[in-house]
Design a protein that fits this description.
The structure is a single chain. The protein is mainly alpha-helical. 79% of the residues lie in helices and 9% in strands. The chain is built from two helices and two strands, in the order ααββ. A two-stranded antiparallel ribbon has the order 1-2. Helix 1 packs antiparallel against helix 2. The protein is rod-shaped and about 85 Å long. The two termini are 33 Å apart. The C terminus is likely disordered.
Length: 110
């Protein structure tokens, strides 16, 4: 086997691994964006709950209905946030190295 062929095989394998890493990093970035959005949604729903509870102009029925809907939304957002947080934790734990991109170079740091 020639040295050029061997080098090409090594470079092809490294390129394949970098492509796989790019896919994993994109997924991790997407999870981070989802988590940020869900955290914002959670704060908004909590604020809405406080507004409903403090609104003395609502009838009992209207207040109860709005509060039930708001709390259902809170439950859904909390559960989704828990799931995304767990997915982030699993994805992060799956990386053997932290990756830093610097001017097009990829550096692996243990």
């Amino acid at each position: 086997m020639s040295a050029n062929f061997s080098n090409k095989m090594v470079l092809d394998a490294a390129s394949s691994r970098i492509d796989q890493l790019d896919v994993a990093l994109a997924k991790f970035d997407g999870l981070g964006e989802q988590k940020t959005k869900l955290e914002t949604d959670l704060k908004s729903a909590q604020s809405q709950e406080e507004t409903i509870l403090s609104n003395e102009l609502l009838s009992h029925d209207a207040g109860a209905t709005q509060l039930a809907q708001c709390r259902a939304l809170l439950d859904v957002v909390k559960r989704r946030l828990e799931n995304v947080t767990e997915d982030c934790r699993r994805s992060k734990g799956g990386f053997r190295y932290r990756i830093a991109r610097d001017g097009g170079r990829v550096q692996c740091m243990g």
